[in-house]
Amino acid sequence: MTKLAGKVAIVTGSSGGIGQGIAERLAQDGASVVIDYHTHPQGAEETLSVVESAGSKGLIVQADLSVVSDIQKLVSATIDHFGKVDVLVNNAGMDGKNKDFWDLTEADFDAVINLNLKGTFFATQMVVKHFIDTKRAGKIINISSVHEELPFPHFAPYCVSKGGIKMMMRDLAIELGPLGITINNIAPGAIETPINTALLNDPEKLSALLKNIPLGRLGKPSDIAPLVSFLASSDADYMTGTTFFVDGGLLWNYHEQ
Question: What is the model's pLDDT at position 5?
Fold first, then answer.
């Protein structure tokens, strides 16, 4: 498939997990992919290998998405190398520490908000400026979470960050629509990635979670990536301001054990 042929996509946090799966799928569908990593260069190299094996071009850029100057470096490096950006996938994020609300520190809060919300905000802003400067339409796709809607006790900053991304997306859909720029969220549920290694190795916790998922299994990056590719394509030109839940039915069936 080459439905994204000629397109250039930035995928933040693409050195592993969901981001790596997204980069692979976009490459398979014909896009050139900019691979962003913060602290895992080996994973970025693995993603580049996957992208190139799919017959597409890739570029690795080291950038901490919680730092605005690093975001500028990422976008500038993309434009310098490929001449443009067509698609931004805001995937980089962290879930923060499992802590009671009253024990959270300013540093705990800042770490999560600066990466998940501020990073998504300013990466979007810089790519939108590029779309405006080049007088082109474009696509913004945020990897949010079911926790933009679903409370998650002991992870308050994470829920705050994802709730913020939900409202940012809705607001920008209206503001950017007249410019031909679409923005949508994808909200994964429980996905089988390295970040969930502890859960995968805890049979009791895993069993309790699976009871909350009507489809009876964890998701995989390959469950997320095809939707990203669809939203990045011209097939989704009339879709904006929407969250797409990819959670096996978790959201409407979840209850604390």
Answer: 98
* Amino acid in position 114: N
Sheet holding 87-90, edge to edge: 58-62, 32-37, 8-11, 87-90, 138-143, 181-188, 243-246
Q: Is 156 helix (H, G, I), strand (E, B) or coil?
A: helix
Indicate whether this model's pTM tops 0.85: yes
More confidently predicted of 121 and 202: 121
The DSSP H or E segment spanning 58 is strand 58-62
Q: What is the reported pLDDT for 193?
A: 82
Q: What are the tens digits of pLDDT across the range 192-219?
A: 987 676 777 788 888 988 999 999 999 9
Show me where the domains of the chain are located: 8-244
CA distance linking residue 85 with residue 163, whole number of Å: 27
Nearest Cα to Cα of residue 126 among 218, 52, 36: 36
Which of 219, 130, 237 has the alpha carbon at shortest distance from 182? 237
Interatomic CA distance for residues 190 and 54, integer angstroms: 27
158 is an active site residue: yes
Q: Which residues lie below 8 Å from residue 135, measured CB to CB, with a gap of 6+?
A: none
Which candidate in 37, 158, 238, 254 is catalytic?
158
- Residues 215-252 have pLDDT tens digits of 999 999 999 999 999 999 999 999 999 999 999 999 99
Give domain 8-244's CATH architecture. 3-Layer(aba) Sandwich (3.40)
Structure-derived torsion over alpha carbons of residues 33, 37, 40, 44, reported in degrees to the nearest 10:
10
**What tokens were used for 82?**
């490929």
